[in-house]
Amino acid sequence: MCQRNDRAARFVRGLRLMTLGLAAMIAFPAQAPAGSAMPGTLVDYESGGKYYDSTIGNYTVAVTSYNAQNSGISANNIMVTPVTTGLQFSLPNSDFEGTMDGLNLAISSTITDSGGRASITIASMAMTNVTVSGTRVAKISDTTPGLSTSLGAGTNMKQDQIYFSNPMTSVTFNDQLSVQIGAGAGVAVINSYTDLINTPEPSTFVLALIGAVGVATLAGYDRRRRTPR
Fold first, then answer.
1. Are 105 and 74 in contact (CB under 8 A)?
2. How confident is the model at residue 226 (pLDDT cuts 50, 70, 90)?
3. Strands (E), the chain
4. Class of 40-198 in CATH
5. DSSP collapsed to 3 states, 73-128
6. Cβ distance 164 to 73 under 8 Å?
7. Helices (H), ranges, 126-202
8. What distance in Å separates the CA atoms of residue 14 and residue 9, rounded to the nearest whole number?
9. Is the dihedral of CA 21, 27, 31, 36 positive or negative?
10. Nearest to 104 by CA among 158, 41, 154, 175
């Protein structure tokens, strides 16, 4: 009888350690594997760069073109950061500030299902760090898939999204950024914006919850087994 109890106790302890290990893997994931998208410059994400066609989950991302237009901003000075299922583009602080004649640049990027599946049903764009005062205006328009944001001069649309009736395997964002102050006082600055497709389900939270419940259940069973009757 004693030997059976010892084996049962070892079995319960083993299950507990396995559950704790799973919970730790979820809470503290391993370093991203090779080929994963990481923070870098626009050049890193262009053809030939180390993060060109890198992965974010089930998708690959790449910058397909950059046109500084009249902004004078080098691609090396624009930061790219992977966020959920898309990219955030950050411009040098205050470098993309409106002038009376207007300041413009264009960035094109692509997000593709790495398995070739038609899984993309939503595309969205948002200005995540923008400052506008007075009657000035900041805009980001997108010829494909057809998104538009603007702030100032009577407009207040910092984000936009589109739903695809026929799911897509790939989406190309052709973003035209523009800031204009016109005459008089005021500022119009775009510091960062994001391009995103489908938002993933919170599966990590569900797995962590399952792990926590498993640990609590095993601990309760072990305490009950040890309690004298």
1. no
2. very low
3. 40-41, 54-56, 59-67, 79-83, 86-90, 103-113, 120-132, 137-142, 147-152, 155-157, 159-168, 170-180, 188-197
4. mainly beta
5. CCHHHCEEEEECCEEEEECCCCCCECECCCEEEEEEEEEEECCCCCCEEEEEEEEE
6. no
7. none
8. 9
9. positive
10. 175
* Residue in 172, 177, 108 with CA at minimum distance from that of residue 140: 177
> What distance in Å separates the CA atoms of residue 35 and residue 17, rounded to the nearest whole number?
32
For residue 164, give the DSSP letter: E
Has this prediction a pTM greater than 0.85?
A: no
The two three-digit tokens of residue 207, written as one number: 């797995």
Mean pLDDT of 72-100: 91
Domain positions in the chain are: 2-30+204-226, 40-198
Q: Which tens digits make up the pLDDT trace of 88-118? A: 999 987 778 887 778 899 999 999 999 999 9
Label residue 228 by pLDDT band (50, 70, 90): low
